[in-house]
Amino acid sequence: MVVYPVIALVRASLSRYSITGLYQGSVGAANYARLVEQEAFVPVVANTVMWVASIVAVTVFVSLGIAQLLNEDFAGRRLVRWALIVPWAASVIMTSKLFVWLYDYYFGLLNHLLTSAGLIAAPIDWLGNDATVMGAMVAVGIFVSVPFTTYVVLAGLAAIPGEMYEAARVDGASAWRAYRSVTLPLLRPALLVAVVLNVIYVFNSFPIVWTLNDRNPGFAHDTMITYMYKVAFKSSLRDVGLAAALGVVNVLLILIAVLVYLRTVSWREADG
Amino acid sequence: MRARARSVGRRAMLSGAGLALALVVLAPYVVMVCTALKPDGELRITPPRLTPIEWQPGNFRVVLGDPGFRAWLKASLIVALTSTLIVLLVGAPAAYYTARHRFRGRSAFLVLLLVTQMFSPTALVVGLYRQFFELGLVDTYAALILTNAAFNLAFAVWILRAFFAAIPREIEEAAAVDGCGRLRALVEIVLPLSVPALVTAAIFAFIAAWNEYIVALTLMTDPARKPLTVGITSYVTAYIQHWNYLFAASVIAIVPVVVLFAVIERHLVGGLTAGSVR
Question: What's the rounded Cα separation, in Å, for the pair B90 and B182?
Answer without folding.
Answer: 17
